[in-house]
Design brief:
By secondary structure, the protein is of the alpha/beta class. The chain has six helices and eight strands.
Length: 231
């Protein structure tokens, strides 16, 4: 269903997976990867957004470390590689690459000019930073790891942001969740949804903590949010 395009930066080019909707022009959504690269899960999410009428694009944000990463969460060796990639990844440069992705897809003939973003895990933190640092029109963060360390940027949060937090997330402990809520609750442009009993990556199909009902609930909330802010 998808295609590959190249995105140009001052440091070089990187690939992105693109899925196009049946009708265009349409609003675009940048899908921000987990620590497993642009794998089948990310491509399926991208395809699914296209099926909902969005021009969806998933950039290879690990390209500066290792281009073309496509691994799963199904083996210890893959987990070790994923964490090594995450540790080598530069978040600040990654946000700049997201802005380059936004610029590229916004200029695509199939885009109507509106661009949102949705990110998962590491991508959840990047989605938060997309809302504070880029000109994306809206962003959704699923179980973002490390956001509690980035809350100094909350003052610059001018874009609509939705967050999905797993109450039992082993990577985002309750203390971190409390800090996030203290900083962001009450902001008119922020919506936070907490999922009781859920662990990290509850919306990752095939994952250890996947929960179909809450994944569907979060997905429906995200789509409604995009419909509101992207049209």
């Amino acid at each position: 269903m998808g295609e590959r395009i190249s995105i140009t930066t001052p440091d070089g080019n990187f690939d992105a997976y693109v899925a196009r909707p049946a009708q265009s022009p349409a609003a675009a959504v940048v899908v921000i990867q987990e620590i497993f690269g642009v794998n089948q899960v990310m491509r399926d999410i991208t395809d699914g957004l296209a099926g909902q009428g969005y021009l969806a694009i998933c950039p290879d944000l690990f390209w500066r470390v290792e281009p073309g990463v496509d691994i799963t969460d199904q083996s210890e060796a893959e987990w070790k590689k994923a964490f090594a990639l995450m540790n080598a990844f530069g978040v600040d440069q990654g946000v700049k690459d997201i802005q380059a992705t936004i610029d590229t897809i916004r200029q695509d003939p199939g885009c109507n000019g509106k661009v949102g973003a949705v990110g998962f895990c590491l991508g959840g933190q990047l989605a938060f930073l997309t809302a504070t640092r880029t000109d994306a029109d809206a962003a959704v963060a699923y179980y973002g790891v490390g956001i509690e360390n980035r809350l100094g940027e909350a003052e610059g949060l001018s874009r609509p942001l939705m967050m999905h937090i797993a109450e039992e997330d082993k990577f985002v402990p309750k203390e971190a969740q409390a800090v996030i809520r203290q900083a962001l609750d009450g902001k008119a442009n922020v919506q936070i949804h907490t999922y009781p009993g859920r662990d990290h990556a509850f919306a990752r199909p095939g994952g250890e903590h996947y929960d179909a009902a809450d994944a569907q609930a979060a997905g429906e909330r995200s789509l409604a949010f995009f419909q509101t802010h992207l049209g």
